[in-house]
């Protein structure tokens, strides 16, 4: 690519400390990767330690009941959030984030170890939008089988699964489908089925921390709504809810505030700016 969208490249610029030169045409880049289609609970780095984060969630709870967000957040979503904004919501969410990280690290250790005891490399499969607004590569991750005493398993073999799918199936990450970075059929069907099983059987995070655990995207939204400085409630709501939810079962658009009506295993998300193109590409009903 010789011509590019400069503003987008600027947003995706790699810090100098993450790049070194191997030779004149081979830079080596340490590239942050955002695993697509999965959203794991946040750790303390996102909103502070549990006590700090809980103060923000408590402010959100107060604002949901004192009229601050009246005529902005519908009653259905308000009641859904209030049922999850418990006195220990931040502590449970951050604990779930730590457990999800530990599970992912153990998953890598197991699946990247060859029968010989040596290490496999990791396959990185970019998809969809490629680079997000934070400069992270959007991709699927999976073990790399080099065929040298480590043959590639059949396509339907468990060892061919991506780490993204494994995290969803184990219940340590909620399914997080965001257009246009969507898996193709039959991979989409497999992901939805595994997500549904994880939710119905309350696996992973739901098993250890309760089915009322704030999902990561709910937690992030509530943290924004509970910001200490709130000069413009409407702007805060718009910032917290930038995506439209679609029911993947029938492609019904439920909007930015109706996602709670759809099981977590059936939610598909579209950025508001992408909705027009998504209607055409996904053939969404009017």
Using brief descriptors, characterize the structure shown.
single chain, 286 residues, alpha+beta, 5-stranded mixed β-sheet, 3-stranded mixed β-sheet, 38% helix, globular, disordered N terminus
The topology string of helices and strands comes to HEEEEHHHHEEHEHHHHEEEH
Question: How much of the residues is beta strand, in percent?
Answer: 15-25%
Distance between the termini: 37 Å
CA gyration radius, whole angstroms: 20 Å
Tell me about the largest β-sheet.
Answer: 5 strands, mixed
Strand order of the largest sheet: 4-7-10-8-9
Residue runs with pLDDT of under 50 for 5 or more positions: 1-12
Q: How many β-strand runs?
A: 10
Q: Would you tell me the structural class of the helices and strands?
A: alpha+beta
Please, how many helices? 11
Helical amount: 25-40%
Mean pLDDT: 92
Q: How would you describe what is shown here?
A:
- With 286 residues, the chain is α+β, with helices and mostly antiparallel strands.
- Helices cover 38% and strands 19% of the residues.
- It has eleven helices and ten strands.
- It has helices at residues 6-11, 44-47, 50-65, 75-82, 89-111, 163-169, 187-200, 205-209, 216-225, 233-240, 275-282; strands spanning 19-23, 26-29, 33-35, 37-39, 121-131, 137-144, 174-179, 243-247, 252-255, 267-271.
- The chain has a five-stranded mixed sheet. Strands 3-6-5 form a three-stranded mixed sheet, with no helix packed on it. Strands 1-2 form a two-stranded antiparallel ribbon.
- α9 (216-225) runs antiparallel to α10 (233-240).
- It is globular, with a radius of gyration of 20 Å.
């Amino acid at each position: 690519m010789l011509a590019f969208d400069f503003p987008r490249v600027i947003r995706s610029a790699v810090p100098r400390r993450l790049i070194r030169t191997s030779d004149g045409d081979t830079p080596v880049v340490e590239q942050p990767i955002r695993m697509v289609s999965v959203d794991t609970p946040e750790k303390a780095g996102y909103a502070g330690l549990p006590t700090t984060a809980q103060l923000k969630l408590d402010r959100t709870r107060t604002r949901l009941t004192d009229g601050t967000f009246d005529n902005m957040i519908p009653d259905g979503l308000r009641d859904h959030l209030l049922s999850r904004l418990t006195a220990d919501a931040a502590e449970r969410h951050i604990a779930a984030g730590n457990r999800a990280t530990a599970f992912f690290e153990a998953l890598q250790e197991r699946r990247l170890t060859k029968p010989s005891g040596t290490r496999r490399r990791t396959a990185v499969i970019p998809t969809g939008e490629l680079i997000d607004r934070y400069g992270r590569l959007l991709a699927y991750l999976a073990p790399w089988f080099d065929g040298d005493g480590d043959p590639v398993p059949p396509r339907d073999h468990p060892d061919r699964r991506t780490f993204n799918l494994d995290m969803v199936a184990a219940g340590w990450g909620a399914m997080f489908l965001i257009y246009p970075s969507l898996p193709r059929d039959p991979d989409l069907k497999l992901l939805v089925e595994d997500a549904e099983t994880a939710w119905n059987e309350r696996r992973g995070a739901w098993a250890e921390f309760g089915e009322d655990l704030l999902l990561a995207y709910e937690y992030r939204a509530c943290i924004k709504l509970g910001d200490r400085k709130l000069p413009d409630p409407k702007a805060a709501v718009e910032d917290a809810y930038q995506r439209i939810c679609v029911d993947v079962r029938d492609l019904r658009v439920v909007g930015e505030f109706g996602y709670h009506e759809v099981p977590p295993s059936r939610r598909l998300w579209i950025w508001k700016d992408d909705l027009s193109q998504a209607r055409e590409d996904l053939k969404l009903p009017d």
